[in-house]
Design a protein that fits this description.
391 residues; Rossmann fold; 2 domains; alpha+beta; 10 helices; rod-shaped
C-alpha cells in the first residue's frame, strides 16, 4: 500500500459509512467517515486522501460533488449511484471520477473499485511528476542550448577576427576568400600576408570534421604561422621566404603530431615572389586541386602529398611556376563537392573548371556560379579563395 493510505467515505449517515468501511476490514486503508459533505470537502482539501468514496442521494451528490477536482490532483474519487443511468454514469466519468459503482454491488467489487482508483491515481500522479521532470529537463536543455549557441556565436566572431581582410590588394595582385561554415564554427581556414613588400604567403586549410574541435585547430594553425613569420621577419630572413613554403607543412605536421589531438588536416600552402612573379606551392592531400586560368586557358595545377597530422617524418614537395601578367588561381575546399551537380569527382571538378572559365574570376562571380550563398545550410564547411593578377 502506498504511504498515503487515507481513504474517506462520505455518505448520508455514519451507519452507512460503517457498512462501506466493513468491506475494507482486512485491508490497510486508513478510513475516515463523514456524514457532512461540507466537512468532508474541507478535510479533502487539507489532507489530500488517496481515495474518496461518495455515496449520497443523486441530487445532493450532483450539488456537492458534481464537478470533481482535476485528474492531476492526488485524490481519486469513486462515486456510488443508486441506479443504472448511463447518462449519469457518463457524466461522473466526464467530471473526473475514477470509477462508478451501481447499487447493489458485492464487497469484492467495492474493494476492486478502490484498488483500481488508487492505482489509476498513482499512475496519474507519476505521469504528472514525470511530465514536470521532463518539462524541467526541457527547460534546462533549452537554457543549455541557448548558452551553447551564444558561445558558438562568440567563437565564430573570434574565428572571423582571425581571418585576413578580404579582398586584399597589393600591386597587381588581388586575393580574396569566402568561407561558408556548416555550423557556427568552421574547420576550414585561410591565411595570407605580404612580407617585406615582396612575398605573399598564403594557405588554405581543411581540418577533419567540423565544429568547435576543428575550429580550435584552425586557431592553432594561425598561431603557428604567425610565430614562423615573426621569427623570419625579425631576422630579416629573405632567403627563408624565397624558399617558402619549403619546410612549412613539415613544421605544422610536427607540431600537430606532438599535441596528439586525433585530428588531421589537408593543406594548400604557397608563397608568391611578386618581384619575380613566381609561385611556389605545396599540397598536403588538398582536393580539388587549384584551378589556374590564363588567356582563356583553364588547367588544374599538379601536385600531391599526404595529409597533415597522421604521418611522422613525412616531407612535401614544392612546385614552382612562373606567373603571367594576367592570371587567376581559384582554390576550393572539398566541402563544395557536396553541393555540386554530377555523380563522380571528375564531373564535379569539370563543373568547377567550367564555372571559373565562364566567370570574371571575382570571388562573387565564382561563389554565385558554384551555388554558394551567404548563410545557407551546407553539409560541410566550404571555402573559396581567389588569387588574381592583372584584373
Amino acid at each position: 500500500m502506498d504511504k498515503n493510505s487515507k481513504l474517506f467515505i462520505v455518505a448520508d449517515s455514519i451507519e452507512h459509512c460503517q457498512i462501506l468501511e466493513n468491506y475494507l476490514a482486512e485491508t490497510n486503508w486508513d478510513v475516515s467517515k463523514f456524514d457532512n459533505p461540507d466537512e468532508a470537502l474541507e478535510k479533502i482539501e487539507a489532507e489530500h486522501p488517496r481515495v474518496v468514496v461518495v455515496d449520497l442521494p443523486l441530487d445532493f451528490m450532483q450539488e456537492k460533488f458534481g464537478l470533481l477536482p482535476s485528474q492531476d490532483t492526488d485524490t481519486a474519487y469513486v462515486a456510488i449511484l443508486p441506479e443504472v443511468d448511463p447518462r449519469e454514469v457518463a457524466k461522473f466519468f466526464h467530471n473526473n471520477a475514477s470509477d462508478v459503482l451501481i447499487k447493489p454491488f458485492a464487497d469484492e467489487r467495492f474493494r476492486q473499485a478502490i484498488e483500481r482508483a488508487s492505482n489509476y491515481k498513482s499512475l496519474i500522479v507519476q505521469n504528472r511528476q514525470y511530465r514536470e521532470q521532463l518539462e524541467m529537463a526541457n527547460r534546462n536543455l533549452r537554457e543549455s542550448f541557448r548558452i551553447l549557441e551564444q558561445d558558438q556565436i562568440a567563437g565564430r566572431q573570434v574565428q572571423n577576427s582571425l581571418l585576413p581582410v578580404t579582398p586584399m590588394i597589393h600591386g597587381d595582385y588581388e586575393i580574396a576568400h569566402h568561407i561558408e561554415p556548416s555550423l557556427y564554427l568552421s574547420g576550414d581556414f585561410v591565411g595570407y600576408n605580404v612580407i617585406f613588400d615582396r612575398y605573399m604567403v598564403l594557405y588554405v586549410a581543411d581540418v577533419s570534421g567540423h565544429g568547435a574541435s576543428s575550429a580550435f585547430l584552425t586557431v592553432l594553425l594561425k598561431f603557428i604561422l604567425n610565430r614562423i613569420l615573426r621569427r623570419h621577419v625579425t631576422q630579416n630572413d629573405y632567403k627563408a621566404f624565397a624558399r617558402a613554403p619549403e619546410g612549412f607543412i613539415e613544421h605544422i605536421n610536427k607540431q600537430i603530431m606532438a599535441l596528439g589531438l586525433d585530428k588531421h588536416l589537408t593543406l594548400f600552402s604557397a608563397c608568391i615572389d611578386m618581384e619575380r612573379n613566381f609561385l611556389r606551392y605545396s599540397v598536403a592531400a588538398h582536393m580539388p586541386m587549384p584551378v589556374f586560368v590564363t588567356n582563356g586557358d583553364v588547367r588544374i595545377l599538379p601536385g600531391k602529398g599526404k595529409p597533415v597530422g597522421i604521418f611522422s617524418n613525412c616531407t612535401w614537395e614544392v612546385q614552382e611556376i612562373a606567373l603571367p601578367d594576367k592570371f587567376a588561381m581559384v582554390i576550393v575546399s572539398d566541402g563544395v563537392l557536396e553541393i555540386l551537380p554530377g555523380k563522380t569527382l571528375k564531373q564535379k571538378e569539370q563543373f568547377i573548371s567550367d564555372t571559373i572559365a565562364k566567370s570574371d574570376t571575382s570571388i562573387e562571380a565564382i561563389c554565385e556560379g558554384l551555388g554558394i550563398h551567404q548563410g545557407q545550410d551546407v553539409p560541410d564547411d566550404i571555402t573559396v579563395l581567389t588569387l588574381r593578377r592583372g584584373y
